[in-house]
Specification:
This protein is of the alpha+beta class and about 200 residues long. It contains 4 helices and 13 strands. The N terminus is likely disordered.
Length: about 200
């Protein structure tokens, strides 16, 4: 009996090791940031005009495909040279580590359920950069007649007809901090609770 139990434990341990090896590999993913369904996308922009900041946040994601919201914890480090985003479950399990240097986007340690919780990683990175980079930086990457505009605590990405595609809201008490990102074409909203914020604005 004891030998059977030991055997079962050994088999389970073996499969856990294999699972860990499978999900811990590093991979590259595309740097396309989709603005709407179809082929309307832009390339993720350069980081050269990025502010320097460190954020720890609780993200709550609501989509039209699920009646339930999902939450993840994130740790973001951003500078004009590099972006690093670590994604954790609310239990502290690491789901993914994302790195972007302005040219290549790399994802490591991504568990299968990470993409069920969040939009695709390249979309998450695009949403982050859309909220923190200067308006003029994005204008060079947007399709013809599209505009990124900001009035007060609201930043809108407008299509060539003037309709809002993405709406970003900032905190009234701390206007540099994002509180929500809503993608009207993909029907998801990310609500953001800022837990730790260190911000050093480099870009004007």
């Amino acid at each position: 009996m004891d030998s059977q139990i030991i055997g079962l434990v050994s088999v389970r341990y073996f499969f856990l090791v294999i699972l860990f090896l499978l999900v811990s590999c590093q991979s590259r993913t595309g740097t396309d940031y989709y603005l709407e369904r179809g082929n309307n996308f832009v390339r993720l922009p350069s980081l050269t005009q990025s502010p320097t900041l460190v954020l720890q946040q609780l993200l709550t994601v609501n989509t039209d495909v699920s009646p339930n919201s999902e939450s993840v914890l994130t740790a973001l480090e951003l500078s004009p040279q590099h972006l690093t985003l670590n994604v954790f479950s609310t239990l502290g399990i690491k789901l993914a580590q994302v790195e972007y240097d302005g040219e290549q986007l790399r994802v490591t340690q991504q568990l299968p359920f990470a993409e069920q919780t969040l939009p695709p990683i390249n979309q998450v990175v695009g949403d982050i950069l859309l909220s923190v980079l200067p308006l003029k930086t994005w204008q060079h990457y947007l399709p013809k007649d599209w505009n990124l505009v900001q009035q007060g605590l609201r930043r809108n990405l407008l299509d060539d007809k003037g309709d809002a595609v993405i709406t970003i809201l900032y905190d009234k008490a701390s206007p540099q901090q994002v509180v929500s990102i809503q993608h009207h074409r993909f029907n998801y909203m990310i609500s953001i609770q800022n837990l730790v914020v260190e911000y050093n604005k480099n870009a004007k």
